[in-house]
Design goal:
The protein has a single domain, classed as Na+/H+ antiporter like fold (Up-down Bundle), CATH 1.20.1530.20. 69% of the residues lie in helices and 0% in strands. It is built from 15 helices and no strands.
Length: 417
C-alpha cells in the first residue's frame, strides 16, 4: 500500500514552486525573469494548500536555522559580487559608492530608527536594531541592477554604484547591529560602552574584515593562477573552488573577530585582479551564482511559508516602516546623497530608488534573535518580512527596465560643479 512521506511531499512541492517561479514570468516578458516575488508567493501557497506539508519553520522560535542558511547565502553572493567588478577604479565611480555607504546608509539607519520609535512605538533599542537590519541593500536579490559577469564589460556608473554598494554595506551595517544588541543588553549606552563599540566593532572589525579579504584573495589567486608554475589549479576549470574560497575567506576572518561579510566581497574583488582576462573568473562566478540562486530560492520559499506565522504581529504602524523605507526614505536619502555626483537625473533617481532589501536583513535579524532576547522580536520579524516582500514586488518587477533605460547610453561621469 502506498503512503506519502512528509519529507517527499516537501521536496516535490518546493521543487514545483521554484520551477513555476522561474517559468511563469516568461509568459509575460521576454526578459530574464525576476522570480523573487513569485518564490515568496509560491512558498505561501504550497504550505497553505497542499496536504501533508510539514509546519513552516518559525523564525521567531528557530532563528538559528535562518541565521545559518542566510549567512551562507549572503557570503556566496558577496564573493560573486566581488568577482563581477572588471575595472576597480574607473572614471571616479567609487565616489558614488562612498556617498551611498558613508551618507545614505547611516542616514537610513537614523530615519528608520526614528520612524520605528515615533510612529510604531518601538523601544529605542528595537528601532535602532531595525534600522541597522533594514539599512543595507542586498547583493543576492539585486541581480537586475548589478554589473554583468566577469569579462562582460559595460560597467555603467549606475550599475557599478549599486553593485559595489551592495557588496560592502552588508558588512558595514554590522557595527550598527552590534550597537543595537549592546543597547538591548545594557538598557542604554554609556561612554565606556560607546568607546568599546567604536574601537572593537567599528575600527578593529572593519579593518580586519578588509585586511582578511585582501589576504585571502591574494592567497587564492596565487593558488589558482601561480602555484605551481605551469600547472596552476585554474587549469582544472573546477568552479567549486569559488565555494571553497569564500568559506576560507569568511571563516578565517571571523576567527580573527573581523567582519566576514566584508572579507567575502573584498576577497572576490582581490582575486579578480589576477589574470584579469582568464575565462576561469567567469567559471568561478557562474558556479557561485548557481549556489547563491539555489539557496536564495529555498530561503524565499521558506519566507513565504512563514508569512502566516508572522501576519498576526504586523499592524499598520509597522507596515508603514517598510512602506516608508521603499517609497520615501531610501529614494529621498539616496537622491540627496548623490547631489553633485555628476549623474543625470534619471540615473540619479534609479540609484536612489533601487536599493533592494532581502537576505542580508534576514541574517541580521536571525543573528540578533539568536544572541539576545529581543523584547519585540515578533514585530521585528513581521516588519522585516513585509519589507522584503514589498521590495521584491516593487523592485523585482520594475528594476530591469528602469536600469536598462537609465544605462542605454554609456556616459562618463560629469565632473561635479
Amino acid at each position: 500500500m502506498f503512503g506519502f512521506e512528509t519529507y517527499h511531499v516537501l521536496l516535490a512541492a518546493v521543487g514545483t514552486a521554484i520551477i513555476l517561479s522561474y517559468w511563469l514570468p516568461r509568459f509575460l516578458s521576454g526578459r530574464e525573469p525576476a522570480a523573487s516575488a513569485l518564490l515568496v508567493l509560491t512558498g505561501l501557497v504550497i504550505f497553505a494548500l497542499i496536504p501533508g506539508m510539514p509546519h513552516p519553520l518559525d523564525p521567531i522560535e528557530n532563528p538559528r536555522a535562518w541565521e545559518l542558511v542566510s549567512e551562507l547565502t549572503v557570503i556566496i553572493g558577496l564573493f560573486g559580487t566581488g568577482l563581477r567588478i572588471d575595472r576597480l577604479f574607473h572614471g571616479g565611480q567609487w565616489k558614488l559608492t562612498m556617498r551611498l555607504l558613508l551618507l545614505a546608509m547611516p542616514l537610513t539607519i537614523v530615519a528608520i530608527a526614528l520612524f520605528g520609535a515615533y510612529v510604531a512605538g518601538m523601544t529605542l533599542a528595537g528601532s535602532l536594531l531595525l534600522g541597522a537590519i533594514l539599512s543595507p541593500t542586498d547583493p543576492v536579490l539585486a541581480g537586475d541592477v548589478q554589473v554583468g559577469p566577469p569579462l562582460e564589460g559595460g560597467e555603467h556608473p549606475v550599475r557599478y554604484a549599486l553593485t559595489t554598494e551592495a557588496g560592502l554595506n552588508d558588512g558595514l551595517a554590522f557595527p550598527f547591529v552590534h550597537l543595537g544588541v549592546l543597547f538591548a543588553l545594557a538598557g542604554g549606552i554609556s561612554f565606556e560602552l560607546a568607546g568599546e563599540w567604536l574601537l572593537r566593532d567599528v575600527l578593529y572589525r572593519i579593518a580586519v574584515g578588509a585586511g582578511g579579504g585582501v589576504a585571502a584573495g591574494w592567497l587564492l589567486r596565487q593558488v589558482l593562477f601561480a602555484w605551481p608554475s605551469g600547472n596552476a589549479l585554474s587549469k582544472t576549470q573546477s568552479g567549486v573552488i569559488a565555494f571553497a574560497g569564500v568559506l576560507f575567506a569568511y571563516g578565517v576572518t571571523e576567527l580573527a573577530e573581523g567582519y566576514g561579510f566584508i572579507a567575502a566581497f573584498v576577497s572576490g574583488l582581490t582575486l579578480r585582479r589576477q589574470e584579469t582576462e582568464d575565462q576561469f573568473h567567469r567559471r568561478l562566478h557562474d558556479f557561485s551564482e548557481s549556489l547563491e540562486h539555489a539557496l536564495t530560492a529555498i530561503l524565499l520559499v521558506g519566507l513565504g511559508a512563514a508569512l502566516p506565522l508572522l501576519w498576526p504581529y504586523l499592524d499598520w504602524s509597522h507596515a508603514l516602516i517598510g512602506i516608508a523605507l521603499v517609497f520615501v526614505i531610501r529614494p529621498a536619502i539616496g537622491w540627496l546623497s548623490l547631489t553633485g555626483a555628476g549623474l543625470r537625473e534619471r540615473q540619479r533617481a534609479v540609484v536612489a530608488i533601487y536599493g533592494v532589501r532581502g537576505i542580508g536583513s534576514v541574517y541580521y535579524l536571525a543573528y540578533a534573535g539568536h544572541h539576545v532576547e529581543l523584547v519585540n522580536e515578533p514585530q521585528l520579524w513581521a516588519t522585516v518580512a513585509f519589507t522584503i516582500v514589498l521590495s521584491t514586488v516593487v523592485h523585482g518587477t520594475t528594476a530591469g527596465i528602469a536600469v536598462e533605460r537609465a544605462t542605454t547610453t554609456r556616459i562618463a561621469l560629469k565632473q561635479p560643479s
